Q: What sequence folds into this?
């Protein structure tokens, strides 16, 4: 059939022509219809399938804002279950500012103590007024609603939790704190965040096209924290350490202090203190120097406390010959273009005598034959120049020279604790290695986890590493007893009645890395040691940064703090005082020092 | 007058009712009040319109279409008078004098006039068999053009646009030469700049530009286009769930129970829901074309094709607007948009088509 249209413009009537084919034309119409329909259909496929995601995002973005509401965090307790950090329920107060009068906004700001001018946020669909509204705040706001000053529909409450530290400043730097936007920021709160935190609850604040808050959508709430953490810390010992440090700092005008109490066998940290401190309940008010966890991060040049570690390297490396003496040059020795001084002048001393009187000249001479690799290798084995592996973040590795890269003058200084730096925790670990028959423990704070129910599941104790032979460790222990017990020993003030104490003093100039030199007005007064010497249970390291005064140093400033902390700790741990054996004489012990020094 | 008896068009009726019920649900969702019931006040009203429309359909179906054709000129004339009188009697709503207020509800005369225009045009074309002279083409243009002009004066440019497919389809079917159609299209194209600079108001031009670049004024002219696009797109394949469309629930979507009701359906029931709606519309239109094929005479064919093309025009213009490929023009989506006049006019028009189908075996 042919398609013939009739009636061209101006053509007039043409009666003979056949009727137009309705069928073909109708089909063409149908095809046109289909084509247009298909075009719209394709467009819809594009919108709803291809571009769905971005458009859905736009829909969410214009109607929703998401807020994270912190869930409860697990408790942190000490080794006896005393609460150190808890999660207390609070409310988050959100309002729809448009629905509230100016007066209502003013009163709300006052009742919630948000310290904000809510009228400036009038155009917002939603405004979070207070994230930690306690019972009093809730009551005050509810009263405004009751009195009709604030419409009921303008106020929305959301349950939340806030972190509290019942013991305030105690172990503040170690515990750390949790900031408002729930990110754990410091300390154990950061290190064990995954364990302690419950997933933040996301609530969706919905607004309409007029930018007015209309609803709050939220997922299910968790009221149960995922896990609680038990620490190795002992609140009583922690308190003893902090108080002893505080009183010593007051007495000596110290600006900062650090203390470590460590179980040398297990690596359990019984106390870890850093002064000055802050209250983690008001972390935002803390000064920077109070936030620093000095046992881990406070690197310093240790001075003489390093000497027993150098001595251990000598013995371990086979460079120690019992009975060998060196001339201590009576207090001043010019060598390699400089003069090494001792506080007191001594003559010929054995290695244990050098340790007891803390002779810089003596230890330098003893250490010289020792090859670099042996010296630094053994110091590294004792944990210097590397992180101890404690379960806190941001630990400083200290600074230990690399063999072959060290100037000889620096190497001499290294022997008596300069030109290298350590943290108090590294010292505690090194002394713990001597205390624990040569096994270097990994210090740690986490002891057990309670996931559900009331059962505490102990956490595995990191395995200690062999760093010294047991015989070297035993020899060092005897020598360190001499430091405390000997009449001329520098550590006599570290004595604890009823126990034999082993330890070493350290007094060193404060090295100021920013100014690139030594600050001759400030000293690091350090004491590191352990007791009972026969079977050590506790390692204590105390280090204070004190202004320089005559006659002050590790022996006078730090040793008494050590003695106080050690005595109390042994008492609290119920360590029996051994039957006191009156002055056991080391093989070439320091008894004869007096006679020789008189020469 | 003769009643056609049992011979009805059941599938068409079922599809009309299905779309009508979907419309009631969509309108209810678009006007949902959180405190109210499942079906909103507007939903109930839409249901009433649906029932009235059903009655109109059943009556229209049972009246032989030749009888309809006999009264076509009377209806057409009456319609013209009403349209012409509108500017005098109607109070403007949204800037347009398009409604007659009867107290209980308002009538938009341009809606039933659509069916009447189809009837009149079909009657005119059927009167002379086999040719479409220039004069008759002009007459056809005037037949459709005069009411369209009156509607354009309301002003309601969207409705005007939907008449273009009707004219083209009827002219084409009546035997217009393709060449002539091309010439007409060229004239139309030449008229576009005239329209742009002479007829269209600034806000209308802005709406057209917005289709290509909605971001140029996202809170103004582009707002509806963007919000509709977001509603449709965020619905995705399966939708957000009935009564759960955030775009409509939170007032982001404008005119959501009327012009943008398809966006509500797209958001809440997704591509699947849109496909169901489109399927029903396609079924309705194919059925009308089928009726055109089996119709006993040219009158029946022209009525069926006229209704199909005019309603296809409305559906496409509305869907194109919701999908963001046509400017925002106030054209209701038949049976889904809230409003009695449109629903009843649709039932009336398809009732005519059903009458054509019913009459196909009867020898007059």
A:
């Amino acid at each position: 059939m042919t398609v013939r249209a009739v009636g061209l413009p101006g053509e007039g009537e043409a009666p003979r022509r056949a009727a137009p084919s309705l069928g073909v034309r109708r089909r063409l119409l149908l095809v046109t219809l289909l084509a247009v329909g298909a075009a719209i259909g394709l467009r819809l496929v594009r919108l709803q399938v291809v571009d769905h995601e971005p458009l859905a995002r736009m829909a969410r973005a214009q109607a929703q804002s998401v807020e994270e509401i912190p869930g409860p965090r697990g408790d942190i307790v000490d080794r006896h279950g005393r609460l150190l950090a808890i999660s207390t329920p609070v409310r988050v107060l959100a309002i729809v500012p448009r629905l509230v009068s100016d007066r209502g906004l003013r009163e709300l700001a006052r009742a919630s103590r948000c310290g904000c001018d809510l009228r400036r946020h009038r155009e917002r669909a939603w405004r979070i007024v207070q994230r930690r509204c306690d019972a009093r705040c809730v009551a005050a706001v509810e009263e405004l609603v009751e009195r009709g000053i604030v419409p009921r529909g303008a106020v929305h409450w959301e349950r939340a939790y806030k972190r509290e530290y019942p013991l305030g400043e105690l172990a503040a730097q170690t515990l750390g704190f949790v900031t408002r936007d729930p990110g754990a920021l410091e300390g154990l709160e950061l290190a064990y965040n995954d364990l302690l935190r419950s997933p933040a609850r996301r609530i969706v604040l919905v607004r309409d096209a007029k930018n007015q808050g209309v609803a709050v959508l939220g997922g299910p709430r968790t009221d149960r924290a995922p896990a609680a953490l038990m620490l190795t810390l002992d609140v009583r010992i922690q308190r003893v350490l902090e108080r002893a440090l505080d009183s010593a700092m007051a007495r000596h005008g110290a600006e900062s202090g650090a203390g470590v109490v460590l179980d040398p066998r297990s690596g359990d940290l019984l106390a870890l203190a850093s002064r000055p401190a802050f209250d983690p309940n008001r972390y935002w008010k803390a000064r920077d120097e109070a936030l620093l966890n000095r046992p881990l991060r406070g690197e310093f040049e240790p001075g003489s406390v390093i000497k027993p570690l150098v001595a251990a390297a000598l013995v371990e490396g086979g460079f120690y010959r019992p009975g060998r003496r060196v001339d201590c040059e009576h207090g001043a020795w010019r060598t390699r273009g400089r003069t090494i001084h001792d506080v007191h002048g001594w003559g010929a001393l054995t290695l244990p005598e050098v340790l007891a009187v803390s002779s810089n000249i003596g230890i330098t001479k003893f250490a010289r034959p020792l090859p670099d690799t042996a010296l630094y290798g053994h110091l590294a084995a004792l944990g210097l120049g590397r992180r101890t592996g404690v379960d806190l973040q941001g630990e400083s590795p200290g600074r230990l020279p690399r063999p072959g890269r060290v100037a000889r003058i620096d190497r001499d200084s290294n022997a008596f604790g300069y030109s290298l730096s350590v943290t108090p925790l590294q010292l505690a670990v090194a002394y713990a290695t001597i205390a624990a028959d040569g096994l270097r423990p990994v210090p740690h704070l986490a002891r057990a986890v309670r996931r559900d129910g009331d059962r505490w599941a102990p956490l595995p104790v990191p395995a200690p590493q062999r760093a010294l032979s047991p015989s070297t460790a035993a020899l060092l222990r005897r020598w360190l007893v001499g430091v405390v017990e000997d009449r001329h020993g520098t550590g006599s003030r570290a004595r604890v009645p009823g126990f034999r104490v082993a330890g070493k003093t350290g007094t060193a100039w404060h090295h100021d890395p920013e100014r690139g030199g030594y600050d001759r007005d400030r000293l690091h007064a350090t004491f590191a040691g352990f007791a009972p010497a026969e079977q050590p249970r506790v390692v204590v390291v105390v280090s204070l940064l004190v202004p320089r005064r005559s006659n002050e140093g590790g022996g006078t400033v730090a040793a008494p703090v050590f003695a106080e902390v050690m005595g109390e700790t042994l008492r609290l741990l119920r360590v029996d005082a051994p039957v006191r054996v009156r002055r056991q004489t080391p093989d070439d012990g320091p008894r004869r020092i007096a006679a020789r020094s008189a020469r | 007058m003769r009643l056609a008896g049992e011979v009805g068009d059941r599938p068409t009726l079922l599809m009309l009712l299905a779309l009508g019920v979907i419309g009631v649900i969509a309108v209810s969702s678009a006007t949902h009040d959180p405190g109210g019931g499942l079906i909103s006040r507007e939903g109930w009203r839409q249901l009433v319109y649906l029932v009235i429309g059903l009655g109109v359909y059943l009556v229209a179906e049972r009246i032989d279409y030749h009888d309809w054709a006999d009264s076509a000129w009377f209806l057409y004339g009456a319609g013209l008078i009403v349209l012409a009188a509108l500017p005098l009697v109607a109070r403007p709503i949204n800037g347009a004098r398009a409604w007659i207020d009867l107290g209980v509800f308002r009538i938009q005369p341009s809606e039933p006039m659509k069916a009447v225009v189809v009837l009149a045009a079909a009657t005119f074309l059927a009167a002379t068999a086999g040719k479409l002279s220039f004069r008759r083409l002009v007459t056809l243009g005037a037949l459709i053009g005069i009411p369209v002009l009156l509607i354009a004066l309301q002003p309601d440019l969207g409705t005007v646009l939907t008449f273009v497919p009707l004219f083209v389809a009827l002219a084409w079917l009546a035997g217009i030469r393709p060449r002539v159609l091309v010439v007409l299209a060229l004239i139309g194209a030449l008229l576009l700049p005239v329209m742009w600079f002479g007829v269209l108001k600034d806000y209308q031009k802005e709406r057209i530009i917005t289709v290509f670049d909605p971001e140029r004024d996202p809170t103004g002219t582009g707002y509806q286009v963007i919000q509709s696009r977001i509603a449709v797109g965020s619905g995705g394949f399966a939708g957000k769930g009935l009564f759960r469309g955030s775009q409509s629930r939170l007032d982001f979507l404008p005119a959501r129970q009327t012009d943008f009701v398809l966006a509500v359906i797209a958001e809440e029931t997704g591509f699947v829901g849109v496909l169901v709606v489109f399927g029903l519309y396609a079924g309705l239109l194919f059925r009308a074309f089928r009726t055109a094929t089996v119709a006993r005479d040219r009158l029946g064919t022209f009525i069926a094709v006229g209704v199909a093309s005019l309603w296809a025009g409305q559906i496409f213009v509305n869907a194109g607007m919701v999908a963001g490929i046509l400017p925002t023009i106030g054209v209701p989506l038949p049976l889904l948009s809230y409003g009695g006049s449109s629903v009843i006019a649709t039932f009336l028009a398809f009732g005519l088509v059903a009458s054509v189908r019913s009459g196909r075996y009867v020898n007059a």
Chain A has two domains: 65-99+126-147+155-231, 235-597. Chain A touches chain B through 52 residues (CB under 8 Å).
